[in-house]
Write a structure and sequence with these properties.
Helix content is about 35%, strand content about 30%. By secondary structure, the protein is an alpha/beta fold.
């Protein structure tokens, strides 16, 4: 037992493990995540409904979205942004790990006869067959990726964008990093049964990496027949650090905001958003 507790509380190297598929492709947890997506009153998995409407209106105006606009939505979930952008006339491609979310999104698109192509796959493996005017990656998805993965992704963005095409994404700020503290807790059926329909014990270890500005929420889920570990990494950025990654990939930063609804940048905000243009 002591050795098991030592393993649970062991601090890995930053981004040592990548377990996104365990969260997004597990049948039970993916359905739990979908229910969070579709609850328009909360900011879990997706932004709340009021914010999404305001955000889409700003994006549509900022990028002059119309019937000739091609958009790629990375980590599209159940298509909350993709659906709204397609209603503005855009031709949208949505990519997401979760089969539950993609199935829901496809039903909405078919019912409304929207021009959306949904793909159920890891967006790190996505290869575009057409070029896009705009790539969006919303809800700080960029932050869960390692430096190597981010470099690969930005290269993909550059290759799939038309000349002068743009990327819009949001990230966690250093202000958010400073507010987090290390902790270790456990609970029976942690998160009210989020991880399994069966009885389990959930251990949560939060590790803070000061030099790398990374937070890890490590979940250890212990059931009678199996033990799982899920690693949720969160890179935190300064605007300068994020700009350096984009510039190295062939982009220039054209806009800096507190969120993807175009709010004026505030360094105290827990997140910020950028518009980067293909050089």
């Amino acid at each position: 037992m002591f050795e098991e507790l030592e393993k649970i509380n062991q601090r890995p190297e930053p981004f040592q493990y990548y377990t996104a598929s365990d969260l997004w492709t597990d049948e039970h947890t993916s359905k739990q995540m979908l229910s969070y997506h579709l609850n328009g009153d909360i900011d879990v998995s997706s932004r709340n409904a009021e914010f999404i409407k305001r955000s889409v209106d700003w994006i549509a105006a900022q990028f002059n979205i119309g019937k000739d606009t091609r958009i790629a939505d990375f980590g599209c979930g159940p298509g909350l942004y993709a659906t709204a952008l397609a209603r503005h006339g855009a031709k949208v491609t949505g990519i997401d790990f979760s089969r539950s979310s993609i199935d829901y999104a496809k039903e909405v698109a078919a019912r409304e006869q929207l021009n959306i192509n949904y793909l159920n796959r890891n967006y790190l493996e996505f290869e575009a067959e057409v070029q896009f005017d705009l790539v969006v990656m919303i809800m700080c998805d960029f932050c869960v990726l390692s430096p190597t993965q981010r470099k690969v992704l930005l290269s993909k963005f550059h290759n799939m964008l038309k000349p002068g095409g743009s990327v819009l994404l949001d990230v966690n700020s250093l202000s958010a990093f400073e507010q987090r503290e290390e902790s270790a807790t456990y609970e029976l059926n942690q998160l009210n049964g989020f991880w399994s329909p069966n009885k389990y014990y959930g251990f949560v270890n939060t590790f803070k990496y000061d030099e790398e500005k990374v937070i890890l929420d490590k979940y250890t889920i212990i059931e009678p027949e199996r033990t799982r570990e899920v690693y949720n990494w969160f890179q935190h950025f300064t605007p300068e650090d994020l700009e350096n990654e984009f510039v190295a990939a062939g982009f220039s930063i054209k806009g800096l905001y507190s969120d993807v609804a175009g709010s004026a940048y505030d360094q105290k905000s827990s997140e910020f958003a950028v518009i980067a243009r293909k050089a």
